[in-house]
Amino acid sequence: MRRAIFEMLARRPSSVRELADQLPISRPAVSQHLKVLKDGGLVAVRAEGTRRIYRLDPQGVGALRTWLDGVWEHALADFHKFVEQHATEEQP
Fold it and tell me: Where is each HTH arsR-type domain found (predicted)?
């Protein structure tokens, strides 16, 4: 559910009600997921009258992207080593 909320917020900032209307979970459940995303630095919130509008936090998303880039670089380097190792083993 958090990934769905994240993807919805990537399209546009939204209130809890707007998110809940598009999801098969209650408003309190959406609020709990938003709290986790906010605590993780991925979501920011601003008051707009009596509503709270949630949006992705560019700094948090940037940090996540940097971390994921590192994970992929490491995985690809390991894969490259594996391929080279097995390519030399198969040659006569």
Answer: 1-79
